[in-house]
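User: Teach me something about this protein's shape.
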Amino acid sequence: MTKMTTVHRIVNFAPGPAVMPLPVLEEIQRDLVALPGVGMSILEVSHRSKVFESILAQAEADVRTLAGVPSNYRVLFLQGGASLQFSMVPMNLLPPGATADYIDSGRFADNAVKEAKKAGTINVAASTKAEQYSRIPSQADLKLTPGAAYVHMTANNTIEGTESTRLPEVGEVPLVSDTTSNMFSRPLDVARHALIYAGAQKNLGPAGVTLVIIRDDLVARSAERKASLGSMLNYAVLAETNSLYNTPPCFAIYALGLVMKWLVARGGLAAVGQANERKAAKLYAEIDRTGFYRGLARKEDRSVMNVTFRLSTEDLEKAFVKESTAAGLDGLKGHRAAGGMRASIYNAFPEEGVDALVAFMKDFERRHG
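Assistant: First, the predicted structure itself:
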């Protein structure tokens, strides 16, 4: 066996695929050739084997423990990312003749609207697109449809750096939430939702698996579409087969399971949420300190996961990206649609990385201000 060597790791602010917990990466490295007691790599284990069934069951159990998932919800490990959920949600849950409400709070929320319109009638209940998505629509902004099939929201807007701190009041209408970029970053009231989905590659693990938590009554609604939907697109079929209708993304599920164990060991979502708030507060304090940096999101709606900001000129921003990258702070260039800077500081992002960025920002302002 080749001896493992210590490698240099840069400070990774990438928005996704994003930084993973170092203990998880080290465990994967140790066990990739052969899982303990198995003699095979997770890359080689059959998805029909007792070994993988155990991995899948433990991942689900830890998800349920972390979020307090009630017994009348199913936990699914699917493929296709959040983008496929943009289509699957209306295909399964929007009956002919009904309307679904969508809260348009960012570019990915807008993508969800566009995909849903291909499947049925959609009402955009509120949008802050005209304000460059600098804030989350308020409860007063919402124009909800009585008896809507569901209300769809995006919990955190990765590009714009905004986050919903309060769930919208939707009455008895099922609430569906895309939590891709802030899933398990703080306590989650699953019972207030009917369906929650998240691509793993930002906060849960590597790309390739999508976590879906769906209430039983929506699974039953999905079952009504079996005759018209492909099996791989039907929540009921995927729930009945325990996410094993076809070969699932075994490695990604295994790695997600390790991240769940890591979160449990850190003290659960309350402890994780406190750590995330502390990291974000340090960075926002530096952004607000002198005015040299300008935050893009309204202060009340700032994301704890994705911190966006700009400088006074594009030349300064180019210099900031170049110099920060040279200093080992990678991935800070903002999304092409928003410009500026973006620091993604997910659960696995170390607090000392935030400290390093704050120190760099102070030095950059001293030299360029």
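Now, about its shape. The chain has two domains: 29-265, 268-368. The radius of gyration is 21 Å. If you'd like, I can walk through any region in more detail.
User: That's plenty for now, thanks!
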